[in-house]
Amino acid sequence: MTGKKQTLVWLAASIWLLFASASGAATYRDLDQQQLWYLELDTGRVVIELNDTFAPKTVAQIKQLTRAGIYDGVSFYRVIDGFVAQAGPGDTPLSDSAIKRLGQTSIPTLPMESVLPWSNARAFTPVQRQDLFAPQTAFSAGFAVGLNATSSEAWLLHCPGAVGIARGNEPDSATSDFYVVIGQAPRYLDGIMTVFGRVVWGMDKVQAILRADPQGSGVMAPDEPQTRIQRAVLGSDLPPEQQLMLAVERTVGEAFEQKLAARKLRDHPFFFKRPPAVLDACQVPIAVQLGT
Amino acid sequence: MTGKKQTLVWLAASIWLLFASASGAATYRDLDQQQLWYLELDTGRVVIELNDTFAPKTVAQIKQLTRAGIYDGVSFYRVIDGFVAQAGPGDTPLSDSAIKRLGQTSIPTLPMESVLPWSNARAFTPVQRQDLFAPQTAFSAGFAVGLNATSSEAWLLHCPGAVGIARGNEPDSATSDFYVVIGQAPRYLDGIMTVFGRVVWGMDKVQAILRADPQGSGVMAPDEPQTRIQRAVLGSDLPPEQQLMLAVERTVGEAFEQKLAARKLRDHPFFFKRPPAVLDACQVPIAVQLGT
């Protein structure tokens, strides 16, 4: 029995190694509380890293709306398992106090920030050429990105945990509502929606968000139970004792390159037959550490 | 305000269309209760369609172990967000009553059933040539499959919701424990693990399964709270009033071909810039209807 138990524990540890190869050697960078968006959901705490390299205007507006309390008490009103969970004030008119805090009577529309001119001088680590949806995938500061054939343009990928801003048919129509990818990456949205962040803590709390009836449109009926955002706040606006000291795996440098290489090579005995030596950038876990 | 509300509802409906294009025209097939595996979790009811075309011996053993009560009361003991949730008796010795019900003192190991000799005479619908991980992807009776270059072999894909049987390093070492894919498809496991089913109902209840500490190995410590399988049962062993009358979208025929084509084409005005005309077979939702 002990033998069997050891085998199973070892098996579990071994499969974990396949999943997070070489993560023991990873190095980490501390996250800046000014770039962390804390969402206190009914299901628990979620922390999103904002990306103002790729989406500076969107991030600035998210911060402004957060400080005006626009997201406090709103619900995830469109939740489709395997796709996205979307939340925001929707069509609710701004309250007098929100107008006062915001300094304007309505929320301005945002320009599309889906594709960034790219310079090879930027630090990034290549993942895969001829990915199904992009000529090249890579990691840049923890985010999975796509690059065009000449690496002159880059965009954030719609991997699970990616956070984007909702819009209408017009490219520059986004205002406040946002979505989190909760299923297989909807990569067809890459480059045509503004991704502005990614979940770095509490993805399990995102996955616990109540779904709409799977036989409906995905938008919840008023009488369907919905998961609320009790409070949204920037890390730098929290008292220090309420901040999470998060550090994420560095996605530049030798340790990370080795991790990617090991995930392509799959030379563990578990692989009695080697899989194709390719990597889906959305299936590379980026480790997170919680400090004290 | 009404105008804005209408716009938002329309927007939501419109994005849904992008997700489930042409599903209005879908046709359905009723599922056979003999092929449905009901798991009553602490989080709610999950129904898995078993696939005995691809994994006949594994399915037969899962049914036998289920009828012997092997899965009743066991926990999801290895749950890694974005990867898999794994459950089963693990190293627990069989009880006297289980031995009696099972008619044997231990659980036999299973042969690998990961790759099936394939005949083009089988009904399947192609999805994508030169997929990152497979020469060809397709759907066969609701399941996403990979095909080799000559279509002489096929295997079930590790898409979200796929259910496979755990094993050690030896290919033919699986016994009882199983995993459900809960994140971006770990396609590097295709063809080297036996997938024997897929979740057709209650994937939200699977996503609500408690995760292990993200900073650990993924295997839960004894004192970590775990989600239990209260009871596992085959649909055909349930009284009719407890069965769910499930029907799934047919994945052969003109309606489904049109759906795939529309998802590649993306000609809705929302797509001000067309994405690449490719499809990730794991990102094609297969509709399910609940009858009465």
TrEMBL record, chains A, B:
E.C. code: 5.2.1.8
Residues covered by the PPIase cyclophilin-type domain: 44-236
The entry's keywords: Isomerase, Rotamase, Signal
Single GO term (MF): peptidyl-prolyl cis-trans isomerase activity
Class of enzymatic activity (EC top level): isomerase
Top-level taxon of the source organism: Bacteria
Pfam families the record matches: Pro_isomerase (PF00160)
Keyword 4Fe-4S: no
Protein name per its UniProtKB record: peptidylprolyl isomerase
Species of origin: Simiduia aestuariiviva
